[in-house]
Design brief:
With 411 residues, this protein is α/β, with parallel strands linked by helices. It has four domains: 73 residues; 61 residues, no CATH class; 130 residues, Rossmann fold (3-Layer(aba) Sandwich); 71 residues, OB fold (Dihydrolipoamide Acetyltransferase, E2P) (Beta Barrel). The protein contains 14 helices and ten strands. The strands form two sheets. It has a five-stranded parallel sheet with strand order 3-2-1-4-5, sandwiched between helices. The chain has a five-stranded mixed beta barrel with strand order 6-7-8-10-9. Strand 9 and strand 10 form a beta hairpin.
């Protein structure tokens, strides 16, 4: 039986130094340190949303000046045309018209350029929030919508022009927008038709995980994936698959049930669009190599993390600088603390090792050893905790059956 890894909780970070801590005795008082605060936004100007990748000022300024230059040229030509149309063909009125037009273009071009730069920045920010798969699926949906609109608009051109053109424009805009929204909403199903899982294939290298049989046999494994704690690309070797098949063929009924449930979990993950389950053959190149070492070597070669409940395997992986994710460690970190003097309710299921002991389990799986309670097997009793130990296999609680005097607050 594989052992669980021990979890140590890190201590809370130390308190940061306050401004008063920086003043030494006898030194003149220094002004209090203050964090730099962003300037207050001007009245009528909406502050921009926080962007994980701030836009570069150089490119924004280049865009503003480019738009301003275009506006200056356009209004200068317009001023020259206006001066010529008024009958002034001499150079002085033409020059005045060009100067006035250039000034108007410079002012309006700056305002229009800043508006354009803001619109472009908002568009870039919106595109960063949308995945590449959604953009591609939306483009495909838009093309299909416009194609359908082209086919449906052919009979409309036989109508009078005053009715045909508005109807065709409405049909194109409606079906194009509908195709765009439908493509984005059904992007996963659309790519699944071609065997592609965009949410899994677009993950970063750190989201690649190698699965151990102990983690797959854990009944909480699938729930962690459904809740988003595990995801990305899941790698499983042939050795792990053979271990699961061996467990599912076991003569023990409990082991056989766990093995078959683990195989059903793999089948469900194969159909899940949020993850990509892959069978890796390269881990079995050396038949004499242990399965555990194959997993560690594969995780290190792929730059991924190893998901296991085996404490010894977790120590080997940590020694080789391979990230480890343990379901038992996560559950242990989320368990509430049980301290001596606390009362818990537990159902006693079997006898303990020592005479008079009875053993029960809390809802989170923590073992509780109760002294002098072997005659209460099968009953649910209130236990006064006397000691709590942290072992390599988890937490162990010792206690005794609480009497009426323990439960009476007036005593």
């Amino acid at each position: 039986m594989k052992k669980h890894s021990k979890v140590r909780r890190s201590e809370s970070p130390s308190r940061m130094a306050e401004p008063e801590d920086l003043v030494t005795p006898g030194s003149p008082p220094t002004p209090a340190l203050r964090l730099l605060e962003p300037p207050e936004p001007k009245e009528g100007v909406v502050p921009p949303l926080t962007d994980p990748i701030p836009p570069q000022r150089g490119s924004r300024g280049f865009l503003v000046e480019g738009v301003r230059l275009i506006m200056v040229v356009m209004f200068a030509v317009a001023g020259w045309e206006v001066a010529e149309l008024t009958g002034h063909s001499s150079s002085t009125p033409l020059l005045i018209g060009i100067v006035i037009g250039s000034g108007v273009g410079y002012v309006l071009g700056g305002a229009f350029g800043r508006k354009t730069a803001t619109a472009v920045s908002d568009l870039e920010r919106e595109f960063r929030r949308i995945s590449a798969a959604e953009i591609l699926a939306g483009g495909i949906g838009l093309i299909f919508g416009l194609t359908l609109a082209t086919l449906l608009s052919m009979p409309l051109f036989h109508l009078p022009s005053r009715a045909a053109f508005p109807s065709v424009a409405f049909l194109y805009s409606t079906l194009g927008y509908f195709g765009l929204r439908l493509g984005r909403a059904r992007s996963d199903e659309l790519f699944a038709l071609f065997g592609v899982k965009p949410r899994a294939s677009g993950t970063r290298p750190g989201e690649v995980v190698v699965l151990d049989s102990s983690a797959i046999l854990d009944g909480r494994f699938q729930a962690l994936i459904e809740l988003g704690f595990l995801g990305g690309t899941l790698l499983i070797t042939r050795g792990v698959l053979e271990e699961l098949q061996s467990v599912s063929d076991s003569s023990n009924a409990n082991r056989r049930t766990r093995g078959r449930r683990a195989l059903d979990t793999l089948i469900a993950l194969k159909r899940d669009p949020s993850v990509d389950l892959m069978l890796v053959e390269e881990g079995a190149t050396d038949v004499t190599e242990a399965v555990d070492m194959q997993l560690v070597r594969l995780a290190k070669a792929r730059g991924g993390a190893l998901v296991t409940n085996d404490g010894n395997l977790a120590k080997v992986a940590a020694a080789l600088d391979v990230p480890v994710r343990s379901i038992h460690a996560l559950a242990e970190a989320l368990r509430p603390d049980v301290v001596p003097g606390q009362y818990v309710s537990v159902r006693l299921t079997r006898r303990g090792r020592e005479k008079g002991q009875a053993v029960g389990y809390l809802d989170d799986g923590t073992m509780v050893v109760v002294e002098e309670a072997d005659h209460l097997l099968g009953d649910t009793v209130t236990v006064a905790v006397t000691n709590a130990l942290q072992t390599s296999t988890g937490r162990l609680i010792f206690g005794r059956v609480a009497g009426e005097s323990d439960l009476d607050p007036e005593v």
